[in-house]
Amino acid sequence: MSFLFLLLPRVVVKHANALAGQYLINTAPVMAMNLFAHALCCETDCTLKAVAILHHDAYLEGESGSPFFGLHPHQRRGAVLVDKADYSRTNKHALSLQPTATMNLTVSLLLEITGAVNLPKVERFLLQGGRIAGGCIEQVGEIELVPDLAQLTLPNGYWVIERQDLMQVCDNPVDALFAAIGKTTPNQADSPPAQQATTETDQEHSPADGDTPDAPAATSAAKLPDSWLIPTILGYSTLTPFEKRPGTRLAPRGESRHAEWPLHAYCESMIGLVQYLPARQWPNSRPLPFWQQHWLDDFTFVVTQQSNSAQG
């Protein structure tokens, strides 16, 4: 079976969700971008094998007294209720509010696909209602479709790669995560320290094309630089059985009420660690860092680069 490579360069997304798992704010919505690629292929009658993410820029929407610390994310308030029904019961002067965090994002997506591809249909999907992490797609560069990666000139940027190795430096993955991002926990004082990671500045401001993190100029296949690390959602684990539930997303409504009803399950997010790695530091001996979607079992869905088989 022959594969094609679809490049969506410099996709500009406005007001995308940056609040992951209700407690984590980041600028690398890896799961959302993988599922966006899946939805794109479903709408354009092709099959997704893998997707690589090339980060260009991201900016959290918020206010801060300092350019690097103490970010206060912008909040949005909807007025969908009337007669003061949208006010808090205990405070008639405060409207109800659901905490949120949003960002503006620019990425390039490289999809490995099979099947016929209708490029005008791809463009319509992107610019006429396409969303990534809930954000509106406002702009995209010239889309390219080639049978060989050697025919592509990829834009400059940062590959988003998986760093599962840093989550395995100790028995407790939570301790390993905090150690990797520079927030060592007390019960890890006697454990081997993780490799040096990002500072708070790195966590609040993702790299832009012109930035250069403090990393070696050359990268060997055995060791990658440990800069621009960021936790993000890389999977979901179900808490309930899959079943048909009224009111779920994509449930049949109106004229489509006789369509197939999708199965639904409540789930919890699974946090992993990723890294922004400058494209020029990616070893030529390695295949490009493609993400693939997998069901580990009947209850656990993940996106990972561990089974990376896409070839350059």
TrEMBL record:
A Pfam family matched in the record: Cas_Csy2
Biased composition (Polar residues): 184-200
Biased composition regions of type Low complexity, renumbered to the chain: 209-221
Lineage top rank: taxon: Bacteria
Region annotation (Disordered) ranges: 184-221
Protein name per UniProt: CRISPR-associated protein Csy2
